[in-house]
Design brief:
The structure holds two protein chains of two kinds. Chain A is α/β, with parallel strands linked by helices. In chain A, 35% of the residues lie in helices and 18% in strands. In chain A, helix 1 packs parallel to helix 9, helix 1 runs parallel beside helix 16 and helix 6 packs antiparallel against helix 7. Chain B is α+β, with helices and mostly antiparallel strands. In chain B, the strands form four sheets. Chain B has a six-stranded mixed β-sheet, sandwiched between helices. A six-stranded antiparallel beta barrel of chain B has the order 14-17-16-15-18-19. Chain B has a five-stranded antiparallel β-sheet with strand order 5-6-7-4-8, covered by helices on one side. In chain B, a hairpin with a 7-residue loop joins strand 15 and strand 16. Chain B is globular, with a radius of gyration of 22 Å. At the A-B interface, strand 9 and helix 11 of A face helix 3, helix 4 and helix 8 of B. The structure holds flavin-adenine dinucleotide (FAD). Flavin-adenine dinucleotide binds next to helix 1, helix 10, strand 12 and helix 15 of chain A.
């Protein structure tokens, strides 16, 4: 009989990372993916004949340990290309160009402050770096091993020196707005720099909580959070992961949705036995590891009835409403942005922090932003195979678009939003509307359908202090294992969180192989 | 003049039996239970207690919380919530249950009535809507309805109770077994009778819609006239239940959802209710924690004490030695038991100390002077009051 050591639900990048580690360790592994392509939110899909794109469109800090452990380079991953600058787009064609070591297009004071703040943030990011690849201690568990994780972190922070440590403590939960106002004058710079602290979360510049943390999380690798697109596009990463997993012996089945995680119960309690597929096929395994989001995993696939009451209710109240929509444009020619050469960097269309705040204000009451803000890439500049020769793909992460729109996501509501987006883009790239052959707009509500992620949430569940670290996704599931024996989590809803990082997949595999 | 009652929403509500009960409440001794006006006693608590033990009495359980749980998933939902196996409960049978938090701390105890394959009534002392709402997550086909206000219920307890019901015309009532339920047509509606109660004696609970409440009262009191029927209140209930060894919230246990301090609540094992926990069931709330508790043994264990002398050990500390050097527990409820002719108590004792000697440090009062006494205690296995008639079917005729 076909019995597996591990079944992984979902071939998101984390599922693939986990599969590769387990297969390398000798396990018989089966990865089941509902979609036609592997990669989850990083999957490259054809959104219009001849035009391809992935939802996640750039990488800021994929784990170098995972690259090394899984020898992803030998499977074709090449991240050595140039990192992109982040460009704060000025309406007048005067842009702020943010690089790793310097910023241009701003006053000398701001430029100096940037260098200083950047160095400081890098020091903090370095102190935190190993933390993301660790399993969080269990709440209430005072075992020395688990507490060491915190002791080590404490030590790392202590080694920053007193001044840095105090500053870190002060900054940790600061709103982006305050951090930016303290350091800079330039409005465009402030807005563009705050983007990485906000993107993917239910936070705007004036929100205290986790933005600084989110920013540091995105900076944990040597690139210091500078975004890049691997050779061959995001598919370059996904293909390397598929390669690493399958060469190690893992099987991957696409177009195979798991209907439920099966359990049996006897006098020793409940335990997971495998999965049942949408067609009724049952596959057994010693354990099931879910890369699907925690809410879907526990409440849809396992079923709340198989959980304890308070735990099930904690999962039910996880904050999973996504606020980032995806815009894909198939363009007939290379888009031209005012005041810029080729559009091969990462462009932030948000002229001020207020513009970001106001877009959030609209969304938080269930409305669509009057003036959306967005992060724009033209991925086909780096990877020409994404579009027919001479033509291009534009990919934008749009904030803040509610998963549940007041009045519902009617066709009209969607086309209104699309119009607003095109109006915005047209201001920075006059003539671009005329180049549009096809537009695909995926609201968080759509992403839930297309990518099987609850609320279409970037991090599967909100990346905020109430749902971080040993509270991610909630206590009693924060060490990758679930309350029901045989079930594990390995996706973005687990520590440390989402983005193309690979850390949850890595950490889950380590726990399983312990 | 404005005659509207500004405090209308704050006033205690009156049970459907209130018109009759207030006429009999000679002492106006009212307190409240779940927002209902509720008698502590009517005339004299001791007298009412003796009615329960020697004739019969009625106790208004309308304020007790009642929930109808119905639908194809009702059994599964309850079975996950409570520690006992509800799937074994037959139709028209009642079972005593408790339910716990994920950590195995007891939230409340109560009874489950199985009225049909897919319909149950859960009764308990405190409002539980919030917990029930949480408990239905994951069960699609179950409806929970608070039926407290649509049900008038009266407990009829005591040796003459069966005879009174027979006098009332419920002929087959003698064949009803303990924890059984019977239904009778009643004045255009229906009367549900369960052989249940909180006194440890022969007794029944009577359930009707509120419109029939006064009719029920009148018919019952007419039938009971020569059988010493009398209403009793909270004080007599508390005496009877203590003799029977039943636990009371806010006395023996704190409801887990209401405690603030860590582990100031209890597990069923601490309350000697381990027999309610059925590990043959693969899944129920708190199972993992309760298994650990069972294996380690509870920190405290609730026991019945027979205390030498006649000084009531209310609120006493317990020690392992007469010199009161080593504290090992505390008394939760105590009384002089007129029926057992014994000085009795329920007490929490550190589990490892159960086999040693137990001494109670008793403070008592005589005409405003306080005295202290250390009395030897004996741990008892059996309830102080458990007459055979409580279990016999048919019960012995009176
Ligand atoms: C609009 C948007 C833009 C983003 N942009 C970026 C970006 O530019 N850079 C970046 O680093 N991050 C970005 N992110 C975040 C990033 O994409 C995610 O955090 C990350 O991809 C999550 O990876 P994962 O492997 O944990 O889960 P996912 O990629 O979500 O994978 C989960 C997989 O499980 C599958 N699945 C679910 N249920 C079942 C089932 N029942 N049976 C079978 N399969 C199932 C799904 O189909 C999916 O393939 C973005 C997110 C969004 C929403």
């Amino acid at each position: 009989m076909n019995r597996y050591d591990s079944i992984i639900v979902g071939a998101g990048h984390n599922g693939l990372v986990c599969a590769a580690y387990l297969a390398k360790a000798g396990q018989k592994v089966l990865v089941l993916e509902a979609s036609a392509e592997p990669g989850g939110l990083a999957a490259t899909r054809e959104f219009y004949p001849g035009f391809m794109s992935s939802v996640a469109h750039s990488i800021s800090s994929f784990s170098s340990k995972v690259i090394e452990d899984l020898q992803l380079q030998s499977h074709g991953l090449n991240l050595s290309g140039r990192t992109m600058d982040t460009i704060g787009m000025g309406l007048d064609g005067k842009h702020v160009v943010i690089g790793d070591e310097m910023v241009s297009g701003v006053s000398p004071e701001d430029a100096r402050s940037y260098v200083e703040l950047r160095r400081q943030l890098k020091r903090f990011a370095k102190a935190l770096a190993s933390f993301w690849m660790k399993t969080m201690p269990r709440i209430g568990n005072n075992s020395p091993g688990e507490l060491m994780t915190f002791a080590q972190l404490g030590l790392k922070l202590r080694l920053l020196g007193k001044e840095d440590l105090l500053e870190f403590m002060r900054m940790a939960t600061l709103p982006m707005r305050d951090l930016m106002d303290e350091n800079f004058d330039d409005k465009v710079l402030k807005a563009a720099l705050s983007w990485d602290g906000l993107a993917g979360s239910r936070l705007a510049p004036r929100s205290p909580n986790s933005p600084v943390f989110a920013m540091l999380f995105k900076m944990f690798e040597a690139s210091g959070g500078m975004h890049a697109i691997p050779a061959g596009g995001i598919a370059g990463l996904v293909n390397a992961l598929v390669g690493a997993a399958t060469v190690a012996g893992a099987e991957l089945r696409l177009n195979t949705a798991v209907e439920r995680i099966t359990v049996v119960g006897d006098e020793s309690g409940l335990r997971v036995t495998g999965v049942e597929l949408a067609g009724g096929e049952v596959i057994e395994a010693s354990r099931v590891i879910s890369c699907a989001d925690p809410k879907r995993t526990f409440l849809k696939l396992l079923g709340g009835a198989n959980l304890e009451i308070e735990f099930a209710n904690r999962i039910n109240r996880l904050r999973t409403e996504g606020l980032v929509a995806k815009l894909h444009l198939a363009l007939s020619a290379e888009p031209k942005f005012t005041g810029m050469g080729r559009a091969n960097n990462r462009m932030i269309i948000a002229p001020t922090m207020d513009s970001i705040e106001f877009a959030f204000d609209d969304a938080k009451y269930g409305g669509c932003p009057e003036v959306p803000v967005m992060e724009v890439l033209v991925p086909s500049m780096q990877d020409p195979t994404l579009a027919p020769a001479g033509q291009h793909v534009l990919s934008a992460n749009v904030m803040y678009v509610p998963a549940e729109l007041r009045g519902g996501w009617t066709d009209e509501a969607k086309s209104n939003l699309l119009q607003r987006l095109l109006v915005q883009l047209e201001q920075y790239a006059p003539g671009i509307s005329a180049q549009v052959i096809h537009a695909e707009l995926l609201t968080p509500h759509d992403l839930e359908q297309t990518h099987n992620v609850t609320g279409g949430h970037w991090h599967h569940t909100e990346f905020a202090v109430d749902q971080l670290l040993m509270m991610r996704p909630t206590y009693e599931a924060a060490q990758y294992s679930a309350p029901v024996p045989g079930l594990y989590l390995c996706g973005a809803g687990s520590h440390p969180g989402g983005g193309l990082v690979g850390a949850p997949g890595h950490n889950a595999a380590r726990e399983i192989l312990k | 003049m404005n005659t509207e009652d500004r405090f209308a929403g704050e006033r205690l509500r009156e049970s459907p039996f209130h018109p009759r009960q207030s006429a009999l409440n000679l002492r106006e001794a009212w307190s409240s239970w779940n927002g209902y006006k509720f008698a502590d006693y009517y005339y004299d608590a001791e007298y009412e207690y003796f009615c329960i033990r020697n004739t019969c009495g009625t106790y208004d359980i309308t304020p007790m919380q009642k929930y109808e749980i119905s639908g194809p998933d009702a059994e599964a939902m309850l079975n996950r919530m409570v520690t006992r196996d509800v799937s074994k409960l037959g139709i028209n049978r009642v079972t005593y249950v408790c339910w716990c938090t994920d950590e195995g701390r007891m939230i409340d105890d109560g009874t489950i009535f199985r009225l049909a394959d897919d319909r149950f009534m859960l009764t308990c002392g405190s409002p539980s809507v919030a917990w029930l709402r949480k408990s239905v997550l994951g069960f699609d086909q179950v409806t929970v309805r608070d039926v407290t206000d649509e049900t008038a219920a009266l407990s009829l307890q005591g040796p003459t109770s069966c005879t009174v019901l027979q006098q009332m015309g419920l002929e087959d009532i003698a064949t009803l077994k303990p924890f059984g339920i019977a239904h009778f047509p009643f004045h255009g509606g229906s009367l549900m009778v369960s052989r249940t109660g909180f006194t440890g004696d022969l007794g029944y609970e009577l359930w009707v819609t509120p419109e029939l409440a006064l009719t029920l009262w009148d018919v019952l009191y007419a039938a009971g006239e020569n059988y010493g029927i009398h209403p009793y209140g909270e004080t007599a209930t508390n005496m009877a239940r203590l003799e029977a060894g039943f636990i009371m919230p806010d006395m023996e246990f704190n409801e887990a959802l209401k405690t603030v301090h860590f582990e100031h609540d209890h597990t069923p094992y601490e309350l000697s209710l381990g027999w309610l926990v059925d590990f043959k069931k693969p899944h129920f709330n708190g199972r993992k924690a309760l298994l650990a508790e069972k294996q380690q043994g509870p920190h405290y264990t609730l026991v019945k004490l027979d205390i030498e002398g006649n000084k009531v050990a209310d609120g006493s500390w317990l020690y392992s030695d007469k010199a009161c050097r080593k504290k090992i527990g505390y008394v939760t409820s105590a009384m002089w038991s007129p029926s057992a002719k014994a000085n009795i108590a329920l007490a929490m004792i550190e589990t490892p100390r159960l086999n040693g000697s137990v001494w109670a440090e008793i403070y008592y009062e005589k005409e405003l002077r306080y005295y202290e006494k250390v009395a030897r205690c004996e741990i008892k296995d059996q309830p102080f009051w458990a007459p055979a008639r409580a279990r016999q079917t048919p019960p012995p005729p009176f």
